[in-house]
Amino acid sequence: MKKGVFTLLTASLCLLAACGTSSNSSKEIVMKSDYTVNTEVVEIPSGDNTLYGTLYTPETDSKTPLIIMCHGYNGVGDDFQEEGKYFAQNGIATYTLDFCGGSTRSKSTGETKDMTIFTEKADLLNAYNYFKTQDNIDNNNIFLFGGSQGGLVTTLATEELGDEVAGMALYFPALCIADNWRETFPETDMIPKEEEFWGMTLGKNFFESIHDFDVFSEIGSYPNNVLILHGDKDEIVPLSYSEKAASIYEHAKLIVMEGEGHGFAPEAAKTAREDVLSFMKENIR
User: Fold this and answer.
1) Which of 25, 113, 128, 257 could join 21 in a cystine, given CB atoms 3.0 to 4.6 angstroms apart?
2) In which domain, by residue range, is 33 found?
3) How confident is the model at residue 205 (pLDDT cuts 50, 70, 90)?
4) One-character DSSP codes across the chain
5) Tell me: the pLDDT tens digits for 235-276?
6) In what residue span(s) does the Peptidase S9 prolyl oligopeptidase catalytic domain sit (predicted)?
């Protein structure tokens, strides 16, 4: 994720950016594919900030599984509008959040210069903890999803939550972020107070917090199924990072999207969300 290459592909990344029901009743919910979809804004406290997100829910009196979707660098939850509607039509509630300080377009509170990978992880954990107490959510079947930087954040949150998470799906997870910025700033005294990058101002903490971070020593213990989709033409996040991730999780499947880069073309995006839906159906508990 070298700085020179990043600049050429900014647009691609910004686009990506015990109450449970029984196993049988959950499977009946997700097999239906014509639910009416309701949408509402849900705001969640996250430290001193407030997370903004959109909740897509199927119209049903039953508890529903949930997938929480995490956007990439300088993205927003609305980047996943199509996925939110599609999953809800198929019986799975979807929450698409804006990370606090995660974008110049974010509707959550917080400044971009205060955002780090770890503040975003905290945001995701706060969203998860909120939804697992909601009466309309099957809290035995909460899935986590992340794209690009959101994929890295999702792996870290899932590592902490463990078996509580029913399954994890990732699009081109940016597991390379710490490595890339270490190349840019090999020594911590080289890190500036602020850095303008891809249209967004990052603060010193973003870089310092990951300078000595080895992602592959921090992930891999999540015990449930993992689905990773990654294009073989990705010039932002090398496919090799997802290949390595797939090899260290006990139950991981990597789908290589032929000809796709960092962000999927419309037809590939359709195939990808169908793959994620199938993955969730197969892993309903």
Assistant:
1) 25
2) 3-283
3) very high
4) --HHHHHHTHHHHHHH---PPPHHHHHHHHH-----EEEEEEEEEETTEEEEEEEEEES-SS-EEEEEEE--TT--GGGGHHHHHHHHHTT-EEEEEEPTTS-TT-SSSS-GGG--HHHHHHHHHHHHHHHTT-TTEEEEEEEEEEETHHHHHHHHHHHHHGGGSSEEEEES--TTHHHHHHHH-SSGGG--SEEEETTEEEEHHHHHTTTT--GGGT-S---S-EEEEEETT-SSS-HHHHHHHHHHSTTEEEEEETT-BSB--HHHHHHHHHHHHHHHHHH--
5) 999 999 999 999 999 999 999 999 999 999 999 999 999 999
6) 80-284
